């Protein structure tokens, strides 16, 4: 919590151009430890997932012609929060000191006598062209780069852009925040002698899954903007280097480019699937429908974990079960050897890997990633009669394992390690974006993600398809009236991603 006795500190943090992978380690560290975060429209809201649960998060807007807070209000807010002892992160798209109003905010903070730090970010002026396959410098094409802004102070009586100087300079010229004025800007450039056939590229939502690039010439780019409905936020590149995009366009040629995919896993677990899909070019909306909570009877779970050494086998059915089991185990014991000679079975490679993360061996792992396969594997090894088995699993999970093990003569106890509850928070605004923009595909990785997504009551976008991690999840989806277009043959994240890639690859 904020320190109420001492003045806090303000961090002007560059949020980068949009791709989470381009955020600096220092920026992430500041977000993780902040008391208050004041963020702009162009800052990727998924960064807020790094914030503490008790952090105060304030949206400042700063969208063109739609400011939630005025600049003066933002300055006063930051100062007031810091004076109250808070560690304040002011999160700004790109770099705070590149055509933003970071300098004004820093001046207001300094004038208030408050300590501050600047955390630079990667500016879209460089990242945007790079992700569009346009090098802003090339020995064969140019020897210098000019950056300018197309969005000037509206109180100015005349433009500060020296178009005559731009025409004389040549080289590569990169403009931020000027799509709305592109007709006026290109008209001025042409009037000052810049050649009409100069290649021009506009890169919209650069470095994100929504990236689009519009290419033309100085003569026709304004007309192309109107014809295509191209909108901000975008960075513009003027220069012969734009022609290199034909061979160097890497980002928009990936297998899932142009596909918007919804990930419904818990916020903590979404990362792996999200990274894989984004790596293939997808525009991912993380819309977690479930949250992992402690079991209803935590005391009983703790007692069973404490007695784990008394069992012959522990069976883990999910990575969550492994994590919660050992979280409790190491609260009770400080030595892994206290688990005794118990053997471990795991369903699926991800679950098995989570066990190995704790430096323990997995003695049994069926080839199929379903509960029934575990029972079959035990039968191959001589059965389970009179064996003591501890199942570490979720509350309200399917009862296949305990019933079949008991039927075969095993002594079974269920260690309810966690429960899944509906995720009601929407810190990143993902639901709003989902409703406004729709999606091509939604992924379900468990029955609970299906049930809890439908419980949200969100409108189903036209044409959105369903991808399921396996037959149990697929059946739950069908039971709720959904059609499953994609089902992973291998019932894990890698299998799901492979199935999605093949599905969309077959459509091309």
Verbal overview:
By secondary structure, the protein is an alpha/beta fold. The protein is 33% helix and 20% strand. The protein has helices spanning 25-33, 71-83, 102-111, 124-131, 163-169, 182-191, 221-228, 245-248, 270-279, 298-306, 319-332, 349-357, 371-380, 400-407, 430-437, 447-455, 471-479, 493-507, and strands at 9-14, 36-40, 56-61, 87-92, 115-119, 145-149, 172-176, 199-204, 212-217, 234-238, 260-263, 283-286, 290-293, 313-316, 343-346, 388-394, 411-422, 441-444, 465-468, 486-487. Strands 3-2-4-1-5 form a 5-stranded parallel sheet, with helices on both faces. A 5-stranded mixed sheet has the order 6-7-10-8-9, sandwiched between helices. Helix 17 (471-479) links the parallel strand 19 (465-468) and strand 20 (486-487). The chain is elongated. The mean pLDDT is 90.
Largest sheet: 5 strands, parallel
Work out the helicity level. Answer: 25-40%
Mean pLDDT: 90
- Give the overall shape, derived from the CA principal axes: elongated
Count structural domains: 4
Unreliable parts: none
CATH architectural name of the largest domain: 2-Layer Sandwich
What share of the residues does DSSP label as strand, in percent? 15-25%
Treating each run of at least 4 consecutive H or I residues as one helix, how many helices? 18
CATH class of the largest domain: Alpha Beta
Widest beta sheet: strand line-up: 3-2-4-1-5
Q: Structural class of the helix and strand makeup?
A: alpha/beta
CATH superfamily of the largest domain: Tetrapyrrole methylase, C-terminal domain
The total of beta strands comes to 20
Radius of gyration: 27 Å
Q: CATH fold name of the largest domain, please?
A: Methyltransferase, Cobalt-precorrin-4 Transmethylase, Domain 2
Distance between the termini: 52 Å
């Amino acid at each position: 919590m904020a320190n109420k006795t001492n003045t806090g500190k303000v961090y002007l943090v560059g949020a980068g151009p949009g791709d989470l992978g381009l955020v600096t380690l220092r920026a992430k560290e500041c977000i993780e430890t902040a008391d208050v975060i004041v963020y702009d429209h162009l800052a990727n809201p998924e960064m807020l997932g790094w914030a503490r649960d008790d952090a105060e998060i304030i949206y400042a807007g700063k969208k063109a012609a739609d400011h939630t807070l005025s600049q003066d209000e933002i300055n006063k807010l930051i100062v007031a929060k810091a004076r109250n002892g808070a560690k304040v992160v002011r999160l700004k798209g790109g770099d705070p000191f590149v055509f933003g109003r970071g300098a004004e905010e820093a001046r207001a903070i300094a004038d208030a006598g408050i300590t501050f730090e600047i955390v630079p970010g990667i500016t879209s002026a460089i990242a945007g062209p790079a992700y569009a396959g346009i090098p802003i410098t090339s020995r064969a094409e140019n020897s210098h780069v000019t950056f300018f802004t197309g969005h000037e102070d509206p109180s100015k009586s005349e433009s500060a852009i020296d178009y005559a100087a731009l025409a004389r300079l040549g080289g590569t010229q990169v403009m931020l925040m000027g799509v709305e004025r592109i007709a006026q800007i290109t008209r001025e450039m042409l009037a000052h002698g810049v050649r009409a056939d100069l290649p021009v590229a506009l890169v919209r939502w650069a470095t994100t899954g929504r990236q689009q690039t519009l290419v033309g010439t100085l003569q026709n780019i304004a007309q192309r903007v109107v014809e295509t409905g191209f909108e901000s936020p975008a960075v513009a590149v003027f220069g012969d280097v734009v022609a290199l995009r034909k061979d160097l366009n890497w980002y928009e040629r990936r297998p899932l480019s142009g596909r918007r995919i919804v990930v419904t896993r818990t916020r903590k677990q979404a990362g792996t699937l999200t990274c894989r899909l984004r790596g293939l070019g997808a525009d991912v909306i993380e819309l977690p429908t479930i949250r992992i909570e402690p079991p209803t009877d935590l005391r009983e779970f703790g007692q069973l974990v404490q007695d784990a050494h008394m069992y012959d086998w522990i069976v883990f059915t999910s990575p969550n079960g492994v994590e919660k089991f050992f979280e409790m185990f190491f609260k009770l014991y400080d030595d892994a050897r206290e688990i005794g000679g118990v053997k471990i079975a795991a369903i699926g490679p991800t679950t098995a890997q989570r066990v190995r993360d704790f430096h323990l061996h997995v003695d049994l792992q069926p080839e199929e990633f379903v509960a029934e396969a575990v029972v079959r594997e035990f039968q191959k090894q001589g059965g389970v009669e009179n064996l003591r088995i501890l199942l570490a699993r979720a509350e309200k999970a399917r009862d296949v394992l305990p019933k079949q093990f008991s039927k075969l003569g095993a002594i079974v106890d269920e260690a309810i390690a966690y429960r899944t509850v509906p995720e009601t928070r929407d810190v990143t605004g993902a639901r709003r974006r989902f409703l406004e923009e729709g999606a091509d595909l939604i992924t379900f990785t468990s029955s609970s993600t299906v049930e809890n997504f439908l419980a949200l009551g969100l409108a189903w976008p036209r044409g959105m398809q369903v991808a399921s991690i396996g037959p149990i999840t697929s059946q739950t989806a069908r039971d709720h009236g959904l059609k499953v277009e994609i089902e992973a043959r291998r019932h894990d994240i890698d299998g799901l991603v492979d199935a999605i890639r093949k599905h969309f690859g077959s459509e091309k």
